[in-house]
Structure formats: structure tokens, C-alpha cells
Amino acid sequence: MIEQKSISSAAWISMAALGAIWGASFVSVRIALDEIGPLTAVAHRTFWAMLVLWGIVLALRMPVPREARIWVGFLVMGLLNNLIPFSLMAWGQLHVESGLTSILNASTAVFGVLFAAAFFADERLSLRKGIGVLLGFLGVATAIGLENLHDFDIRSLAQIAILGGTVSYALAGVWARKKLSGLRPQVAAAGMLTGSTLMAVPMALLAEGPISLDLQPVTMMAIAYYALIATAGAYMLYYRVLDMAGSGNLMLVTLLVAPVAIVLGALVLGEKLAPNAYAGFALLAFGLAILDGRLWRLLRGPKPRAAD
Q1: Are 241 and 14 contacting, i.e. CB atoms less than 8 angstroms apart?
Q2: Highest mean predicted confidence (pLDDT) among 53-57, 99-103, 292-296
């Protein structure tokens, strides 16, 4: 029987860092959308991050892939992991309240585990994974407020768009493992962002007009954060976690994003955490512990030894 990929301590640390970085990115993207359009926001995000990452690749003298199949892989990855979800979610944030948006975004973990189970033998769906993901998702929903679920309306194009973005993220994890495994994280991220930029910039120009840098300082700061830190920096961690934990486990990062946003709101904006937030954190922590496997083995007890 093929062993499922386990989550190492190093992978958990990297996933926690990704959750913190992407949790703050929701705020920065929303600030930028007050002055620029969703497609322009995506173009800024991919273009500046691409430049930074290629600068790192060249400075470290890393080999640049030359095979056509790898560059096709970069284009598809840029579409699935950047252009589609960034655009759909940026547009969705203009019409859907943040609580429901975060709940819907966390469903990426559910789709990620399901798609990974369908494509990879070593990431098959088990009872442990099913329970862990459901507990984690319920924890995120509880922390934000279960009353937000009452506002879900399948007829809402904005909500459907956000769900479409989560499906695209999950498919991207599968594609990256199948087609881009083995590449250095900096190279894989730079190539992916090159593919998405080649599509995002023309789309922004056609749909929203010339891309201007004459923006308010707060908008420029928001773009700098979500492009340089939440994209360039985060995607180097993304590919590292992919290699360490697998595509299904990688999607669990989305379960950490919403709680991080709540904590940042309390620390930075002085917002008070409601009791349901602490209950949600407890459920989330329990779900992640189940997914890690060690607590699950402890709860189940030692396996009976086979008879000689």
C-alpha cells in the first residue's frame, strides 16, 4: 500500500507563514481596488512579482528552463494559479462581504484534497483527511461567524466567481505537482508569473485602459505588499511546501488565511475578537492536528501486531 504524504514540522512552519502573508493580502487588495480595477490589480501583482523573481534567479545564476513543455506548463500554471483566481476573487471582493468571502476561499482546501485524491495515489482520500478538512473548514466558518452562511446565494455571480477561483487554485496544485515538480522554487514561481503576466497585462489594457502609476501612496503601498511579499515571496514558499507536503496538503494553507485576517484586525485596527472566533480557532487547530496524523494515531491507539 502506498503511504500518504505526511506533513513535516518544516512544512507546517512554511504553511503558517503562507497563511499569515496571504491573510494580510486580502486587506491590501481591497485597498487597491478603491482606485484601480480588478484586472489592473492582477496585472500589477503578477508583473512586479515576476521582475523580482527573475532578478533573484539571475542573481543566483540558476539555470533557466529551455524545454518547450516546461514553458507550456508555466503558461497553464499562470492561468490556473494567478490569472483566473486573482481576477475572479478581486472582482468578487467588490460585491461580497469579507466574512463570506473568507469562508468561500477556505473551500480551496476541500477541493484541493478531493482533486489530489483523484490524481495522486499517495494523496488518496482517507477518513483522517476527510475529518480533518471538515473540522478545519467548520473552524474557519465559526471564527468568522456562521451567520454569514445564511447570506450565501447560489444566484450571486460574485459568490460563484469566488468559488470558481478556489477550484482553480486547487487544480493549480495538481498541475504544479504533475508538470513542475523538481524545479527550483524561484524558477518555478518566476516562470508561472511570466505566463500569467503575458495574459494579465493585455487583458487589463483592453478592459480597463492604460495602466497608470500615478496612484495614491496608500494604493502604491498596497500594491507593493501584495505583489512583492504576498506574491513573489509567498510563491517561493508555495513551491517549497508543494515538494514537502504534496498538492492536497498545500491547499490547507487556505484554512489559515481567514483566522490570520481576524487576528490582524484585532492587533492592527483594534477590533475585538468575539467568543466565536476563539471557538473557531480551537476547531481549526484540532482539524489541522488530525490532518498532521500524529494526533490521529494517538487517538486510534497502537495498531495490533500481526500474528507470527
Answers
A1: yes
A2: 53-57
Sign of torsion over alpha carbons 221, 225, 231, 236: positive
Q: How many CA atoms lie within 13 A of 290 on its CB side?
A: 19
Pull the grid cell for residue 106. Answer: 477556505
Count helices and strands in the chain by DSSP H and E runs: 14, 0
* Cα atoms in the Cβ-side hemisphere of radius 13 Å centred on 292: 17
Question: Tens digits of per-residue pLDDT, 31-43?
Answer: 899 899 999 999 9
Quote the CA–CA distance of 279 and 224 in Å, as a whole number: 34
What distance in Å separates the CA atoms of residue 182 and residue 175, rounded to the nearest whole number?
Answer: 13
Residue 280 and residue 39 in contact, taking contact as beta carbons nearer than 8 Å? no
Which pTM does this prediction carry?
Answer: 0.76
pLDDT digits (tens, 9 = 90+) for 103-158: 777 777 778 778 888 888 777 778 888 888 888 778 877 877 777 667 666 657 88
Rounded CA-CA distance 216/220 in Å is 6
Contact present, 247 and 169 (Cβ < 8 Å) = no
**Alpha carbon distance 251, 174 (integer Å):** 10
Contacts of 279 (CB under 8 A, 6+ apart): 142, 143
